[in-house]
């Protein structure tokens, strides 16, 4: 079956009414769960995985992909609306997304995020079809030196993101690295910095750190300003749509973010997170007004939101072509495939999960 | 004052981290022990914290901190105190009671009326407990009752 026939077959499966309904339910539930603080896409999929056991494999996969994308979007929603990212991939989104909310452009930010994600997901599917096996071969040759270089590049990009003093950013990088060493050493299984606590032996997870840094900080900011001053202007329905100018400014960031995300997604590691950093930095560098980033620039929402979805699609390449999950979310998808008796690998050109991913974006946009 | 205190505190934290890290088995470059990576991180941390502290005391650019108005400072202090109390009493009185108390007290001090604060406390603690503990089976402490 050629790529085009495969795609057509994938669409014919995905567009069955029962599958569309499963997609809709998945996206709806995923978005609701994703909005809850501390439960990201992985948590949402893990929680709802058992509910798909009784379904047809394709329907189950479509619903899981829907949950995944829905939860990602839910995470971005809280990032934009209340300055608390639902998961790590949407941390960067809050830099400009929340500022847009304060200017009354929340609807535009949410719409651009959804459209950007959809475009990136579609670009990703095309990328998977055209280059899956070849790209997977390249990605699998990565060894420790390459991982180290990627991690280092990520940290350097991160320190350029904050916009403030580089020295302060490096202090925070050091603090983050130090927090990462708490818990069991992965080589010798020695407990580091746990002070006898059993909970700390498992290390400090990302969710408490995100909640502490963004959630608590937001509460304290609210405390500083007092309740009366934090009224956000009411929004009319028409203002929910981005203006023509905003569309124009979002187009290129979405295109670049899609490509950046897809390429980053091929590489093992926290690709969705890294890709958002890369995309944001890229947009800042490309922009004629880089100093305005962080004050509600729509480019700062469009690029990263496209890239984290592109990364998700990219991460499907090693999963589908090699059967190797590079991220927790794809690991759960792999688990779901195996539960349903499917063997991921070179033979599994079931375009269904990606097509469902694309169609689930349509559902999300519709909600 | 605050602009100097923050890097200083971070410097102290980094120094404590370094002293703890060197106690772990270091190993060699070929066979790194549990302390190998932490020591490298700690040296980096102490270095950058030292530079940041020096910059703050010289009054370098980007080191200035936002000074808060007295009543804003009081509200932030009360919120932080309430958060600490919340964490301390959570294992003893359980999540529903602690969340109710936290929300009610903080909202009251942020300027809400007593009735609003109490109502918000009941709704948010019952709502979040219902979603997380009942629907999603997250193990939250219930308390003695």
Q: How are the secondary structure elements laid out?
A:
The complex is a heterodimer of chains A (367) and B (145).
Chain A: H1 3-14, H2 17-35, H3 41-48, H4 57-82, H5 93-102, H6 106-140, H7 144-161, H8 166-180, E1 183-184, E2 191-192, H9 198-201, H10 206-225, H11 244-265, H12 271-286, H13 299-322, H14 328-339, H15 352-366
Antiparallel strand pairs in A: 1-2
Helix pairs in contact in A: 1-15, 2-4, 2-15, 3-4, 3-14, 4-5, 4-6, 4-14, 4-15, 5-6, 5-13, 6-11, 6-13, 6-15, 7-8, 7-12, 11-12, 11-13, 12-13
Chain B: H1 2-22, H2 36-58, H3 70-93, H4 95-110, H5 114-135
Helix pairs in contact in B: 1-2, 3-4, 4-5
Précis, in short:
The complex is a heterodimer of chains A (367) and B (145). Chain A is mainly α and 367 residues long.
Number of helices of chain B: 5
**Alpha-beta classification of chain B:** mainly alpha
User: What percentage of residues of chain B falls in helices of 4 or more residues?
Assistant: over 70%
Gross morphology of chain B is flat
Q: What percentage of amino acids of chain A are in beta strands?
A: under 5%
Count all strands of chain B and give the number. Answer: 0
Order of helices and strands of chain A: HHHHHHHHEEHHHHHHH
Categorize the overall geometry of chain A.
globular
Helix content of chain A: 55-70%
**What class, by secondary structure content of chain A?**
mainly alpha
Number of helices of chain A: 15
Q: What profile does the largest beta sheet of chain B have?
A: none
Overall mean confidence score, pLDDT of chain A: 75
Q: In what order do the strands lie side by side in the largest sheet of chain A? A: 1-2
Which chains share the greatest interface?
A-B, 31 and 44 residues
* Domain module count of chain A: 1
DSSP strand content of chain B: under 5%
Averaging pLDDT over every residue of chain B, what do you get? Answer: 85
Radius of gyration of chain B, rounded? 22 Å
Distance between the termini of chain B: 46 Å
Helix-strand topology string of chain B: HHHHH
């Amino acid at each position: 079956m050629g790529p085009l026939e495969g795609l057509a077959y994938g669409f014919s499966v995905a567009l069955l009414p029962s599958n569309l309904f499963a997609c809709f339910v998945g996206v709806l539930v995923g978005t609701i769960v994703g909005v809850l603080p501390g439960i990201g896409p992985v948590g949402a999929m893990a929680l709802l995985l058992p509910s798909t056991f009784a379904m047809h494999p394709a329907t189950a996969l479509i619903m899981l992909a829907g949950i995944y994308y829905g939860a990602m979007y839910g995470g971005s929603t809280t990032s934009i609306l209340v300055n608390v990212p639902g998961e790590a991939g949407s941390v960067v989104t809050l830099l400009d997304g929340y500022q847009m909310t304060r200017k009354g452009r929340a609807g535009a930010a949410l719409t651009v995020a959804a459209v950007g994600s959809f475009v990136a997901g579609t670009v990703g599917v095309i990328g998977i079809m055209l280059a899956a096996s070849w790209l997977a071969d390249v990605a699998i040759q990565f060894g420790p030196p390459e991982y180290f270089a990627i991690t280092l590049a990520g940290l350097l990009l991160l320190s350029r993101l904050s916009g403030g003093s580089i020295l302060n950013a490096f202090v925070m990088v050091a603090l983050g690295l130090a927090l990462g060493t708490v818990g069991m050493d992965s080589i010798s299984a020695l407990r580091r910095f746990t002070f006898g606590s059993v909970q700390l032996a498992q290390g400090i997870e990302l969710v408490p750190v995100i909640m502490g840094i963004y959630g608590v900080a937001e509460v304290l900011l609210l405390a500083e300003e007092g309740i009366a001053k934090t009224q956000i202007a009411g929004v009319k329905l028409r203002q929910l749509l981005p203006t023509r100018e905003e569309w124009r400014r979002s187009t290129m960031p979405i295109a670049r973010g899609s490509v950046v995300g897809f390429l980053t997604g091929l590489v093992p590691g926290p690709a969705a997170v890294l890709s958002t950093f890369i995309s944001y930095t890229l947009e800042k560098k490309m922009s004629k007004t880089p100093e305005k980033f962080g004050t509600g620039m729509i480019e700062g929402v469009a690029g990263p939101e496209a890239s984290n979805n592109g990364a998700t699609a990219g991460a499907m390449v090693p999963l589908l072509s090699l059967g190797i999950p590079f991220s927790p979310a794809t690991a759960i998808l792999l688990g779901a495939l195996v539960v349903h008796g499917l063997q991921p690998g070179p033979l599994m050109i079931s375009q269904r999960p990606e097509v469902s991913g694309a169609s689930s974006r349509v559902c999300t946009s519709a909600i | 004052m605050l602009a100097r205190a923050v890097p200083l505190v971070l410097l102290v934290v980094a120094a404590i981290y370094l002293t703890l890290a060197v106690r772990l088995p270091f190993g060699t470059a070929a066979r790194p022990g549990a302390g190998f990576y932490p020591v490298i991180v700690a040296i980096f941390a102490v270095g950058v914290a030292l530079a940041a502290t020096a910059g703050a005391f010289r009054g370098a650019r980007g080191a200035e901190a936002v000074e808060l108005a007295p009543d804003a400072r009081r509200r932030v202090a009360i919120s932080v105190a309430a958060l600490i109390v919340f964490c301390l009493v959570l294992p003893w009185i359980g999540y529903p009671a602690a969340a109710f108390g936290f929300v009610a007290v903080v909202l009251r001090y942020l300027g809400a009326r007593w009735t609003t604060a109490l109502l918000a406390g009941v709704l948010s603690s019952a709502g979040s407990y219902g979603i997380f503990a009942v629907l999603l089976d997250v193990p939250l402490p219930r308390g003695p009752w």
